[in-house]
Amino acid sequence: MKKVEISINLDPANDGVRITEETEKSNKDAHGLVIATNGDYQEVGSQEVARILKRLNDCFDVDCIGNTPFVAVFNSRKVLRNEGHRYLAGSVLIVKEGEESIELLSEEELEKAKMAFISRLVALKMGDSSFSAYEIG
Question: Rounded to an integer, what is the distance from CA 96 to the centroid of its chain?
Fold first, then answer.
């Protein structure tokens, strides 16, 4: 966002309009949550959320996590299909659904988002391998 300042100090050399880019204030209480189906997780800031979304630009999908305001953003190319259901083994970015865009999570919401994600994990078996997967939908 641009910030406009007008300075009039009866100094013709320096008076006038000054336009600067206002830096977005970092909200220490806002996070994205990257969580994996093996239980590992990491809280990330807004810049890392933006980088993740940029990397997923052409291959992302989103899933509303149950009856919560949280959404899981994941790589659509990594989805497993089994008996009409869709699953994901790996990691997702969890953010909140806003009015017109996504929103970051507060400290209090981080734990709720973790629990909501974990509640959707199931055990899958493929061949000799058994692993946890997030059930989409």
Answer: 7
Rg (CA), the chain: 21
The candidate with the shortest Cα–Cα distance to 106, out of 41, 31, 42, 46, is 31
Mean pLDDT for back-to-back runs of 10 residues, the chain (137 residues)? 70 69 58 95 95 94 95 95 92 93 94 96 90 94
HSE-CB for 137 with a 13 A CA cutoff: 7
Instruction: Tell whether pTM > 0.85.
Output: no
SS3 category, 46: helix
Q: Any idea where the domains of the chain sit in the sequence?
A: 26-136
d(CA 131, CA 135): 12
